[in-house]
Amino acid sequence: MAKAWYLTSRPTGLPTAANFALREQPDAPLEPDQLRVRNLWLSVDPYMRGRMNGTKSYATGFQIDQPMTGGAIGEVIESRLDGFAPGDQVLHMGGWRDGGVIGLDMMPNKLPAAALAAGMTPQTFLHNMGLTGGTAWIGLLRVAAAKPGDVVFVSAAAGAVGSAVVQIAKAREMIVIGSAGGAEKCAWVKDLGADAVIDYKAVPILPALARALENLGKAGIDVYFDNVGGEHLDAAFAVANDFARFAICGMIDVYNDGKAQEMKYLIRTIPARIRMEGFIYTDQFIDCMEEFYADMGGLIASGAVTIRETVHNGLDATPKAFLGLFSGENIGKMLVKL
Ligand code: NDP
Fold it and tell me: 17, 72, 202, 272: which could form a disulfide with 95 (CB 3.0–4.6 Å)?
């Protein structure tokens, strides 16, 4: 019998194990347009924290005493959906569980056979060829309209989105400053090609950013790719060049406590004519899907874009993997392997 993680209460602050319960899923016969899958990989992502609140947001909230959902890769074991057959590998939204019935509401998509035959791993569609790589690509190239020669500052640069931003920007001949927590992460971001890296847990971010710019002989940043909010965002305001573009992707610094964010340098948006735009991956993905797959597929094939995976094993580990995102336990993409 399949099992799924349920949200049993709404977290206050950082969630704890007490907010989740693993429960058996009753077996049900397939209805038309449904698949039965055995999940192979589950994605845990920071945006899921927002779905645990009872408040209105862009992603449907998790309901109390209902199974949670999220990106997953599964293998079809039974199909009543045209075009899908046992053995197919599918990307779908029925995560936080080891398998079960997947309907059209879970948006099943067959993984492209050509990509798999060329050696791409299935879980790549949960990161660089999926949500996190797509977010990096859309945010950097479309929202911020970053171009060769731009100075790009990216926070959470050793995470899934951030590491893709670093590499796409370097492949496009931009100058990249990344920030990440800890020496091991910073060393990896440098290996990915960043021109400067700041360990924000070791030094205050604004003076370090100013120093990095000075060492690079640059007056300021043209693009800020924000994954964090708070002091990082304020530091970016402080050093923005005229007509800088800020792609506001995430603010993980406040996902759990919703604390006020002091912005001493927000006023610079006016004299520097900063354009700041929040964006959601799903709003733009369909429009640019073909271009994204072609471009990102090429960057991955050439080795210009790589990923590290931090993998937890087994369905039981899913909440732990999710919580690890907030303590920075992951380097690259956090995944659960079943
Ligand atoms: P990551 O792989 O980057 O994991 C989260 C990382 O955030 C941690 O490893 C940690 O790295 C860092 N972090 C955690 N808490 C803090 C903090 N208080 N201050 C600074 N850094 C912190 O996750 P993703 O790549 O999946 O997501 C990155 C961001 O992108 C998130 O904000 C997410 O919500 C957002 N996002 C937005 C999307 C959109 O459509 N707008 C789509 C997908 C993601 P470290 O050790 O360096 O602190």
Answer: 72
